[in-house]
Amino acid sequence: MMGVRLSQRVGKPDTGSDGNIEIRNPEPEKTLCSPSI
Questions:
Q1: What gap in Å lies between CA 37 and CA 21, rounded to an integer?
Q2: pTM for this model (two decimals)
């Protein structure tokens, strides 16, 4: 579920900047998932 949300964000131009950070650093993904839960 988390992976799908991240992929969707990367696909959207609105969160393009955030998507780049998530792709470059695997750690931020966990950080974003933590608050989501």
A1: 20
A2: 0.13
Structure tokens at 7: 């992929």
H-helix or E-strand spanning residue 23:
helix 16-24
- Report, as an integer, the average pLDDT of 9-25: 53
- Domain positions in the chain are 2-36
For tokens 């470059």, what's the residue? 24
What are the two backbone dihedrals, phi and then psi, of residue 14, each rounded to the nearest 5 degrees? -65, -40
Find where tokens 């988390």 sit: 2
State the pLDDT confidence band at 34, using cuts at 50, 70 and 90.
low
28 burial via Cβ count (<10 Å: 0-12, 13-18, 19+): middle
